[in-house]
């Protein structure tokens, strides 16, 4: 779920059968009566880490013009209108992220193809029962969208025609267009004129225009403001008799109209819902129950149809739009396409090669085939429409676009090998549109439904004895007599069901697939043309001398940490290394240390409606296979398209790369990637990129099908540094797309600069099909033959591995890491991840992004090409320096070291904080503040030690984005006594979700007690909680209690319970009593340190006590799956975000996580908070939600910055542990914490030095710091500055790396909440409305039995109701 999903309200109607039904008055609220007094109110929140998501710079107000809202899925701008001379434009992630959804869908079809009004009525009834699956606006009345697709009701239209004096329509040769026009009558007439001229040009006759009668007053306020003028056009075609040719002609006409309209001022206000001889779509920005009342046509008994597809939309990103309601022209889609950017790029890439005789040479007129400004559903519909209009059946089109997981299917290859052949053929032709999806489709002849390969959307079907077939995303949408049901079931992963309306047949999954697969001899084509790259042996000895290896490592940016903690660990153990404590170093663009290019990229990850999947438990549906070679004309099946090479993994060793060079069809060519600086550095990188792209262009035009971009050289030259391979790959990928050549060749990176799973993911995500990490393999070989390794293995201190095994282990670890990265985004196939650009960029400017990463989000700008060249050169020169000739430098990016990278959490900081909280002296805390501010100088700025001067809070060296700002105020300072109390401020403080098990019992309980004392909230984390903690202490003497004998510094009345209890699917320690003792229930979707992944607890930390609380076994590692199967739908979204949004920054801590996840997933909370706060205000919802933010908080400065950016509450994670005694040893994952903070070993826990009072003192210091700054700014309450970004200004500093950061994204302001933050936080807990629980508990038949032995029982009918 993008963070913009809160832009409108889910569940406009009460749902009595759900305890999570939303109130029609308040959607999001928080707890009341919290503080030291415990309550048993259960509240629900979602921990959502900031991944990507974006906030449009031209934020869409609901009241904006139709032009801004009706940014149609088919209309393209003048710049993106294509003819055969223009270049394709790659998809822009900012546009794509705007539109995602999760919905309710279904269809009803009469097998006898008999039209009836009952079909329409039943569809509207079923649609009304899916209101809970849709969203609506802040007015609780403007729906995200609902609609129906039916066959054209000719009887109804002929009766209308008769009244108008129009002759009956020739049903074979007439089409009906459902059109959204501009509201302005004059503009509508202009649009009509264009439409009529195109039809006339194509030889079609406009028979009539009809104004569709609608019930405008029933529409919600916001939807009414943007409601289009809705018309129908009746068009006759005389030159065609074949029904498919007629549909094709209508398709061409619509495309021509769209192109013509794009050059008009009203172009973005024109949209065809449908234009067909067979189907018509009625839809709008309406709630489910409103659709049938809004369109009077749908109420008429004469409106008859043999089938109906219905859809209720929930847009999870931005304001909904009339055209984006569904069904689309062919599809109704419940789900999300997670690979949409890559799919769009590839569709644009193949435009020049897509040809079919059915178009009679008019392919240029129907381009483009996708639109980044449209929704993922609209683009999938566009792709399906292209296939179907090109002669494919709907079933075949769906099998190509959304293939099932056929590779590991238990019976498919045995019983239906022809189906496997079909999928094998097309896997190299079309990348899967991957993501959770239930798709309903119809071309008027066939109606069907299919599920994605994971089956993460529900779909049930049933057939009755009156020959009616029903499919729905849930049961209970219609009252069906069970005795009349002759067939029923559910669609499993990848399954399909179709109804042939012409022949009156129902085809279930295998029948459908077999009929499609037998249409061509796919097996024969594969056997004759497709090659498989057989695994080749790893090299058995190094190819370089140790000194040469060192020089290469230095030149390509390796550090000793990379070699020892990453490469060698992977070579030894065959898995990614685990680390802890989060990422507390500066962003790459802010660092004074040089970084390689990959460090500027952060992985996006799935959030709620596009759930993460589990690579361990769902490996059957995942694949790293990729095909190399030319991808031909996908519209025409033939043997030549099968001429490709299949790889089982994108990781190539040297021998396998050599095999590819020998393939006679691929005609591989190497393109060196070095830039020459002999004539100066400036401009050299840009010139080289142009030359590389030109060389790639020439090679492909001359028949090369495999481009190998290589930084391999016999001898490194000081004046010829290597272009960052990611930059080279991205530039060539984008160049070939823009020149229509991308489908003609694959890209392989032969590189030294790739050793982490994140590096592989970046290269593949930006266009490489495979990677040969030759220096990483060479490093593995060197490690295995080193004396140290040999001795360790000989002495039994390290597992024995051969030199070949070491390299294979490295490859195995990379493969597993790639699977995890794919699964974070809910993607199953590497082939779909390729080119999908599922990253956000922090610190690269437009110049670089436009050259190599076009379409990726880079909201804060950053480095130019010349600045990147300088940073690249800073590594390269180390290979030629006497000072660094003997050993590899340790940059300190992972572990802190003297002279290495600055870490926010460092031993010196810990010591100063310990002194401050234990001595209770303000002067000691001031020294701690000074330490935070006085970071290593890498900027030019002023600094003062005067705590009353606001510059005191300005850091000398920015570490995070907030450090780039300082406060300003036009008010005079006020006395400190006028500022709200520290006791009031600390109630806004929370601690992070640190589980018992990751940290010790002593730490966990001390933190909980401290937070309860100050009225804040501690978080249990995911590991459960001991029931002994739920009762206030009454037996304390001299600071000790027999109830909790392991703690000191206690007081009578202390409670060790965590106010926030954390829950998520598959997680441990959650019991009913655990939940009952919560003030908030926080359902963990993702977290900053490892977003999209499950929790991880090493076996050595699972003691008997921890195992008892988690209902598991001692010593067994606990890796819980990411939440997915039961957290995927809009109902779950309503449950998860019911009361609270919590945003976690990428720099949050963790007890154990893969290093690549800690370093490279998620983004700064400053970006996510800005986006969320301002989107909520834009859409009138800010008052309904409390925003809490955490990630790297250490001081009052962080609190104030978060407040100015819009946060109501503030979370402290690692720093809370430090205040209770943590010394930042960074060995949490080993169970060897020297002070017992993060260990389960009893002898180490006995060393725990903390008392609850230490943490209380810390938070009071932070609150006083906040008060002091508020006084200086002239404000009395924290409320007064929340959301006031005008109090921030960029610091006047000069960064080392670049002067091109753009901070306007964060400083922008669309207004402030109507209520104060305190009012928002203190509002009454809303009612869930009438829910089934209340009904049962008040039933006289149930009450006498409750609380007694035995189980009370009562039978009730189950049905959906709105």
TrEMBL record:
InterPro entries: Aldolase_TIM (IPR013785), ET-N_metabolism_enzyme (IPR050711), GATase_2_dom (IPR017932), Glu_synth_centr_N (IPR006982), Glu_synthdom (IPR002932), Ntn_hydrolases_N (IPR029055). GO terms for biological process: ammonia assimilation cycle; glutamate biosynthetic process. The keyword Translocase does not apply. This is glutamate synthase (ferredoxin). GO terms for molecular function: 3 iron, 4 sulfur cluster binding; glutamate synthase (ferredoxin) activity; metal ion binding. The lineage of its organism: Eukaryota, Viridiplantae, Streptophyta, Embryophyta, Tracheophyta. It comes from Ambrosia artemisiifolia. Residues 103-502 form the Glutamine amidotransferase type-2 domain. Pathway: Amino-acid biosynthesis; L-glutamate biosynthesis via GLT pathway; L-glutamate from 2-oxoglutarate and L-glutamine (ferredoxin route): step 1/1; Nitrogen metabolism; Energy metabolism; nitrogen metabolism.
């Amino acid at each position: 779920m993008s963070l913009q999903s809160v832009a409108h309200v889910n569940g406009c109607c009460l749902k009595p059968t759900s305890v999570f039904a939303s109130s029609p008055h308040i959607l999001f609220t928080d707890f009341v009566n919290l503080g030291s007094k415990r309550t048993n109110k259960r509240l629900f929140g979602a921990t959502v880490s900031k991944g990507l998501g974006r906030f449009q710079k031209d934020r869409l107000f609901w009241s904006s013009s139709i032009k801004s809202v009706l940014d149609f899925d088919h209309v393209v701008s003048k710049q993106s209108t294509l003819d055969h001379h223009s270049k394709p434009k790659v998809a822009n992630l900012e546009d794509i992220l705007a539109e995602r959804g999760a919905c309710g869908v279904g269809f009803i079809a009469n097998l006898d193809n008999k039209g009836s009004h009952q079909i329409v009525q039943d569809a509207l009834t079923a649609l009304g029962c899916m209101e809970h699956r849709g969203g609506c606006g802040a007015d609780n009345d403007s729906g995200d969208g609902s609609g129906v697709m039916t066959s054209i009701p000719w009887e109804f239209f002929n009766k209308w025609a008769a009244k108008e004096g129009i002759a009956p329509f020739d049903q074979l040769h007439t089409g009906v267009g459902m059109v959204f026009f501009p509201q302005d009558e004059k503009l509508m007439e202009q649009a009509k004129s264009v439409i009529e001229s195109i039809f006339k040009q194509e030889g079609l006759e406009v028979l009539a225009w009809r104004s569709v009668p609608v019930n405008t007053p029933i529409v919600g306020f916001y939807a009414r403001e943007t409601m289009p003028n809705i018309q129908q056009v009746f068009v006759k075609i005389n030159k065609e008799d074949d029904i498919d040719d007629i549909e094709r002609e209508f398709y061409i006409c619509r495309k021509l109209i769209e192109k013509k309209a794009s050059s008009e001022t009203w172009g973005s206000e024109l949209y065809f819902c449908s234009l067909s001889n067979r189907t018509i779509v009625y839809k709008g920005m309406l709630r489910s129950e409103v659709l049938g009342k809004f369109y009077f046509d749908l109420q008429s008994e004469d409106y008859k149809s043999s089938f109906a597809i219905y859809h209720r939309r929930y847009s999870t990103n931005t304001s909904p739009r009339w055209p984006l309601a569904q069904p689309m022209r062919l599809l109704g889609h419940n789900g999300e396409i997670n690979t949409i950017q890559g799919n769009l790029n590839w569709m644009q890439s193949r435009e020049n090669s897509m040809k079919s005789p059915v178009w009679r040479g008019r392919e240029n007129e129907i381009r483009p085939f996708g639109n980044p400004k449209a929704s993922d559903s609209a683009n999938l519909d566009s792709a399906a429409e292209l296939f179907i209009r090109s002669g494919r059946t709907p079933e075949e089109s769906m099998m190509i676009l959304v293939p099932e997981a056929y590779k590991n299917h238990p019976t498919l290859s045995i019983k239906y090998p022809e189906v496997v052949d079909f999928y094998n053929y097309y896997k190299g032709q079309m990348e899967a549109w991957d993501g959770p999806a239930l798709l309903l489709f119809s071309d008027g002849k066939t109606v069907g439904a299919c599920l994605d390969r994971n089956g993460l959307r529900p779909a049930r079907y049933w057939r009755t004895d009156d020959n009616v077939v029903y499919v729905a995303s849930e049961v209970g949408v219609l009252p069906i007599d069970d005795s009349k049901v002759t067939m029923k079931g559910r669609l499993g992963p990848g399954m399909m069901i179709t109804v042939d309306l012409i022949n009156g047949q129902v085809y279930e999954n295998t029948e459908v697939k077999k009929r499609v697969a037998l249409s061509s001899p796919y097996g024969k084509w594969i056997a004759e043309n497709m090659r498989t790259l057989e695994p080749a042996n790893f090299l058995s000895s190094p190819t370089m001398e140790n000194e040469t290896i060192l020089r290469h490592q230095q030149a390509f940016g390796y550090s000793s940490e990379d070699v020892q903690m990453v490469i060698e660990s992977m070579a030894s153990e065959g898995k990614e290394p685990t680390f802890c404590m989060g990422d507390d170093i500066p962003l790459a663009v802010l660092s004074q240390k040089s970084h390689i290019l990959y460090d500027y990229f952060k992985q996006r990850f799935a959030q709620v409606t596009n759930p993460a999947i589990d690579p361990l438990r769902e490996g059957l549906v995942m694949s790293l296979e990729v095909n190399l070679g030319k991808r031909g004309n996908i519209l025409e099946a033939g043997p030549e398209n099968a001429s490709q090479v299949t790889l089982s993994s994108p990781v190539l060793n040297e021998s396998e790369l050599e095999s590819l060079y020998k393939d006679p069809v691929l005609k591989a060519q190497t393109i060196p990637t070095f830039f020459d600086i002999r004539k100066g550095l400036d401009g050299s990188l840009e010139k080289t990129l142009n030359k590389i792209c030109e060389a790639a262009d020439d090679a492909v035009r001359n028949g090369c099908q495999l481009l190998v971009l290589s930084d391999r050289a016999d001898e490194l030259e000081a004046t010829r540094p290597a272009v960052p391979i990611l930059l080279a790959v991205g530039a060539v990928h984008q160049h070939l797309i823009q020149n229509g050549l991308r489908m003609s060749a694959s890209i392989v990176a032969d590189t030294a600069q790739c050793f982490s799973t994140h590096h592989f993911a970046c290269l593949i995500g930006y266009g490489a099909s495979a990677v040969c990490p030759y220096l990483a393999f060479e490093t593995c070989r060197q490690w295995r033959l080193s004396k140290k390794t040999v001795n360790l293995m000989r002495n039994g201190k390290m597992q024995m591995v051969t030199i070949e095994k070491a390299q294979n282990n490295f490859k195995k670890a990379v493969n597993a890491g790639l699977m995890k990265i794919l699964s974070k985004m809910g993607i199953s196939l590497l082939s779909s991840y390729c080119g999908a650009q599922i990253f956000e960029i922090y610190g690269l400017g437009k110049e670089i992004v436009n050259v190599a990463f076009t379409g990726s989000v880079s909201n804060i700008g950053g480095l130019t090409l010349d600045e990147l060249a300088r940073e690249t050169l800073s590594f390269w020169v180390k290979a030629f320096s006497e000072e660094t000739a003997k050993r590899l430098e340790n940059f300190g990016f992972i572990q802190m070291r003297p002279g290495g990278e600055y870490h926010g959490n460092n031993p010196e900081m810990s010591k100063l904080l310990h002194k401050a909280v234990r001595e209770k002296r303000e002067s000691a805390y001031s020294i701690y503040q000074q330490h935070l501010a006085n970071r290593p100088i890498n900027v030019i700025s002023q600094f003062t030690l005067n705590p009353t001067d606001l510059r005191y809070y300005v850091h000398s060296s920015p570490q995070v984005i907030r450090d780039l700002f300082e406060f300003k105020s036009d008010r005079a300072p006020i006395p400190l006594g006028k500022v709200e109390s520290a006791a009031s401020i600390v109630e806004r403080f929370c601690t992070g979700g640190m589980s018992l098990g990751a940290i010790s019992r002593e730490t966990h309980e001390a933190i909980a007690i401290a937070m309860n004392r100050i009225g804040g909230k501690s978080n249990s984390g995911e590991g459960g909680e001991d029931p002994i903690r739920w009762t206030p202490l009454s037996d304390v003497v001299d600071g000790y209690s027999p109830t909790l004998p392991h703690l000191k510094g206690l007081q009578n009345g202390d409670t060790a319970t965590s106010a926030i209890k954390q829950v998520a699917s598959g997680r441990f320690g959650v019991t009913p009593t655990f939940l009952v003792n919560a003030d908030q229930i926080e359902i963990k979707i993702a977290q900053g340190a490892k977003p999209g992944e499950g929790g991880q607890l090493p076996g050595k930390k699972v003691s008997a006590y921890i195992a008892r609380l988690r209902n598991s076994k001692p010593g067994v590692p606990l890796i819980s799956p990411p939440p997915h199967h039961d957290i995927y739908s809009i109902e779950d979204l309503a449950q998860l975000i019911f009361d609270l949004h919590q945003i976690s920054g990428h720099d949050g801590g963790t007890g154990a996580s893969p290093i690549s996840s800690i370093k490279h997933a998620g983004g700064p909370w400053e970006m996510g908070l800005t986006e969320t706060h301002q989107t909520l205000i834009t859409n009138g919802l800010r008052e309904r939600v409390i925003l809490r933010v955490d990630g790297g908080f250490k001081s009052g400065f962080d609190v104030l910055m978060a407040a100015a950016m819009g946060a109501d509450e503030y979370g402290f994670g690692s720093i809370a542990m430090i205040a209770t005694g943590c010394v930042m040893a960074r060995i949490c994952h080993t169970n060897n914490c020297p002070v017992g903070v993060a260990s389960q070993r009893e002898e180490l826990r006995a060393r725990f030095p903390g008392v609850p009072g230490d943490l209380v003192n810390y938070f009071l210091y932070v609150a006083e710091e906040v008060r002091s700054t508020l006084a200086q700014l002239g404000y009395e309450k924290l409320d007064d500055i929340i959301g006031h970004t005008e109090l921030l200004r960029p610091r006047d500093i000069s960064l080392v790396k670049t002067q091109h950061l753009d901070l306007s994204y964060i400083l922008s302001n669309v207004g402030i909440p109507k209520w104060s933050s305190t009012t928002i936080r203190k509002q009454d807990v809303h009612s869930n409305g009438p829910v089934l629980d209340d009904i049962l508990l008040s039933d006289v038949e149930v009450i006498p039995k409750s609380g007694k032995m035995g189980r009370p029982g009562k039978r009730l009918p189950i049905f959906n109701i709105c």
